[in-house]
Design brief:
By secondary structure, the protein is of the alpha/beta class. Helix content is 47%, strand content 9%. α11 runs parallel beside α16. About 2% of the residues have low confidence.
Length: 299
């Protein structure tokens, strides 16, 4: 546990501070951005301007995640753009500036996190989607639960090979290195995908065991990307049932919207073989948790 995390446990153990909290810890490139964009329409769910706050990862794993410099960069790039005074609604700018002021405040602690959720409509749940939360240690979950009136956590998985390929592409895309795929040999690809910041997201079995050990059965639910794509409305209804919320009538336009897509580059023929033994092991580990994986995982 980091020194900051220890200090938080001593000084900020406020029962109910976070209210009803809904966390999505889905694997990278497993549909969580689409899920966020749709669930943001539900009248009982409150999201901040920033989809992935990463606060608990910052507190318990990497205290540089929400450094002053990183928060200033995010605020400048995403929430303080130049605007046209003749066309912009001042109320919208005022709301954004109020949230950014909270986001840039210090210290970054439990009260800082709570103050990001303004809940203007009185929604039931505060919502925070971060793939990094899948890597939290047990003491983090103990602290989160101790500060919630209700905690609900979901974890979304996707076909291991397809998710990994999408993750590799996406990372290279956002770092302007997509051209490297044109020259990488199987060995180069293997070296890159095995880097911890990529590979740790592939270890579904480890993540499931860790989260199930830390969370109560009625507070944690695994889901599959394949079910999301096959029948999105049924998938959304399952999420709402898990949260004990009424079903919302989402528009077809929202349901069909494509978000955060990776570059359309075919998977190399050699790619699946690089991870075939790992995929068999990971699939077996998921099923050992009593979870039936989609049939498509065997192809």
């Amino acid at each position: 546990m980091s020194d900051m995390a220890g200090k938080m446990l001593q000084t900020n153990a406020h029962a109910g501070l976070f209210g009803h909290l809904f966390l999505s810890t889905g694997a990278m490139k497993a549909g969580t951005t689409w899920l966020y964009s749709v669930l943001a329409q539900h009248p009982e769910l409150h999201f901040t301007l920033e989809k992935e706050i990463h606060y608990f990862y910052h507190a318990y794993v990497n205290n540089r995640q929400l450094s002053d410099a990183r928060r200033l960069t995010i605020a400048q790039d995403r929430y303080l753009p130049r605007y046209n005074p003749e066309r912009t609604n001042p109320d919208r700018i005022r709301v954004n500036l109020h949230w950014v002021a909270n986001y840039l405040s210090r210290p970054v602690d439990d009260l800082w996190y709570r103050n990001l959720f303004t809940r203007p409509r009185g929604e039931l749940y505060n919502c925070d989607f971060s793939n990094l939360y899948a890597h939290l240690p047990p003491e983090a979950w103990q602290h989160i639960q101790g500060n919630c009136t209700r905690l609900k956590v979901i974890y979304t998985m996707r076909h291991p090979v397809k998710r990994l390929w999408s993750h590799v592409k996406f990372h290279l895309q956002v770092t302007d290195k997509l051209h490297l795929l044109d020259t990488w040999s199987p060995g180069k690809m293997q070296d890159f995908m095995r880097k911890p910041f990529i590979w740790e997201n592939a270890e579904y079995g480890i993540i499931l065991r860790r989260m199930r050990a830390a969370l109560p059965e009625d507070g944690f639910r695994p889901f599959f990307y394949e079910d999301m794509r096959r029948d999105p409305r049924a998938f959304l209804a399952e999420i709402e049932d898990f949260l004990e919320l009424p079903h919302h009538d989402y528009s077809e336009e929202i349901i069909e919207r494509k978000v955060n897509e990776s570059a359309s580059i075919p998977m190399p023929d050699f790619f699946p073989e690089l991870v075939s033994e790992d995929v068999a092991r990971i699939t077996a580990e998921v099923e050992a948790e009593g979870i039936l994986v989609p049939e498509s995982w065997s192809s």
